[in-house]
């Protein structure tokens, strides 16, 4: 599918409409707070809104280009996410050759398989062949210092930053009856619900949050924020059923599954950051941190959504 049809026009009109409202509110708060004096929270809000404008415009351009645009977009996201993950691994010359294979061979091949719609190899290339290749290549370097730890971290980086994320554009390969040529809407449904779940959990947490879910891991994630954000995201997903092959109730069930997995993904990424002693994975997205900070929930939700859709609708 290339170009934008009526449904996509409505979808993007809603997205940019929300951004316009958010920008106006942010501008009013920035101008009116304490006689115009700068406020860190409001400034951070406006920075995040500006970043969302950039991300949504890039997403729109990818949709206009078509499937190739989506694959290029997610390949770029995987590249930056993989780079951020790898920087958490202590530098070691013995890892260099394995990392070159990851960045310049395995990651491009994974997305080529998505573009070729070769599900059979796409689904096993990284978790089987790359998983086995990496320890063999690292062992051949002859350095046994922290061998298991180094190997496992690189394997995990490939699984999370490349394999898991590649399931999002892989939605374009699904052949769903009476839905041919519309799979880009399914990809947008996934991204909107998951990303809005993050935003809504944050908002509900700030407004009503009192009880942290995992205090030692992520004190800002509260029970109230979790419940409010998940329920609101399920309602949002149900309201967007018209861009999917799902009924309203199924769209709600899918939304529940991917938002729960997104929440777990966020917790796991927070655990990795705390273990590594960093606040953010990077600084590539102003106000949001690194690429992994922005797509941590998508890492866990994309594979689940892909396989649920594939199993029940193809």
UniProtKB/TrEMBL annotation:
Record's keyword terms, sorted: Membrane, Transmembrane, Transmembrane helix
A GO BP entry: peptidoglycan-based cell wall biogenesis
A GO cellular component entry from the record: plasma membrane
Residue ranges of the TM segments: 9-32, 52-77, 154-174, 186-204, 225-243, 249-272
Domain of life: Bacteria
One Pfam family this sequence matches: CTP_transf_1
Protein name: Phosphatidate cytidiltransferase
Source organism of this protein record: Xenorhabdus innexi
């Amino acid at each position: 599918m290339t170009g934008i049809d009526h449904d996509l026009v409505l979808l993007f009109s809603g997205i940019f409409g929300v951004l316009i409202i958010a920008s106006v509110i942010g501008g009013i708060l920035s101008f009116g707070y304490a006689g115009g004096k700068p406020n860190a929270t409001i400034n951070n809000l406006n920075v995040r809104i500006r970043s969302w404008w950039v991300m949504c415009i890039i997403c729109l351009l990818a949709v206009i280009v078509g499937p190739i645009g989506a694959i290029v977009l997610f390949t770029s996201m995987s590249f930056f996410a993989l780079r951020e993950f790898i920087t958490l691994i202590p530098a070691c010359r013995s890892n260099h050759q394995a990392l070159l294979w990851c960045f310049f061979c395995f990651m491009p091949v994974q997305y080529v398989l998505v573009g070729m719609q070769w599900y059979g190899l796409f689904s096993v290339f990284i978790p089987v062949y790359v998983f086995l290749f990496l320890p063999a290549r690292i062992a051949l370097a002859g350095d046994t210092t922290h061998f298991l730890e180094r190997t496992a971290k690189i394997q995990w980086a490939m699984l999370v930053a490349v394999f898991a994320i590649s399931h999002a554009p892989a939605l374009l390969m699904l052949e769903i009856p009476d839905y041919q040529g519309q799979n880009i809407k399914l990809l947008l449904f996934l991204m909107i619900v998951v990303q809005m779940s993050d935003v809504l959990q944050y908002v509900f947490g700030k407004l009503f949050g009192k009880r942290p879910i995992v205090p030692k891991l992520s004190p800002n994630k509260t029970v109230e924020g979790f419940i409010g954000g998940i329920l609101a995201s399920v309602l949002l997903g149900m309201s967007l059923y018209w861009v999917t092959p799902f009924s309203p109730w199924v769209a709600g069930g899918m939304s529940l599954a991917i938002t729960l997995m997104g929440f777990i993904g966020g917790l796991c990424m927070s655990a990795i950051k705390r273990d590594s002693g960093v606040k953010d994975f990077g600084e590539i997205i102003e106000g949001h941190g690194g690429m992994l900070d922005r797509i941590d929930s998508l890492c866990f939700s994309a594979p689940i959504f892909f396989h649920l859709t594939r199993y029940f609708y193809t």
